[in-house]
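Quick bug: Trans-aconitate 2-methyltransferase output formatted oddly.
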Amino acid sequence: MPNISWDAADYKENFSFVPAYGEAVIDLITKQPESRVIDLGCGNGSLTAHIAERGYIVTGIDDSEEMLRLARKEHPDLSFLQGNAVSFHLEKGVDVIFSNAVFHWIDEKNQQTMLSNIYRNLNPGGELVCEFGGSGCAEAVHETLEQCFSERGLVYRRVFYFPTIGQYAPMLEKAGFKIEYAALFDRPTPQNGSDGLANWIRMFVKKPFEGVEKELEEEIISDTVSRLRNRLYQNDFWIVDYVRIQFRAVKQQNL
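Here's what came back:
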């Protein structure tokens, strides 16, 4: 299960860069149009629609009812199902399982189970095409938050899973995949508006603040933003130090 709940409207308004960057990940798919594709963790359906525009028969799957409501409203001609990456089940295998900016929200202990489940839901020769946060993703922000928590006698929980290629590739192989493509790269990512970093923290760093009083939460966010201004505020934009990891892996045979 993903370790976050979403504000679908805020996500659409202020964080549209997530699906926007994901459009390039679609290019990693090698299957021909008319192939059956699952957009796993489809969110508001933006990328699902782009996949459909390329001629694929696509279904979006997401664990968030709020996101699915928005997806169905904005893309009524597409199919969407509720399910999570670890346990979703398809009646019939598909040719591609595509996922953008999802896997880092899955607890590390569930990653192998998730990959095995994806493998089961693919046809032989089917592709897993994915991008998510890689080692070092947003480390400047997480490190500073960790310092601010510690100075107030609190523990900052690192709930995100950001692996290296060397850590993740063996997990894919253990699940039965042959890796055809892998990349790890920096992607400094601009945020919207003068409060871009604070809004990013409020949207994406929810779990570590559970149990923290709202006033203290805002104090920590403000302190973090202040400490990072010289480092991450560039040319009138906040930049978050994203690192991304990409894979295309092929199902070789049934286990």
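Actually, after a second look the formatting is fine. Confidence is low (pLDDT under 50) at residues 3-16. Closing.
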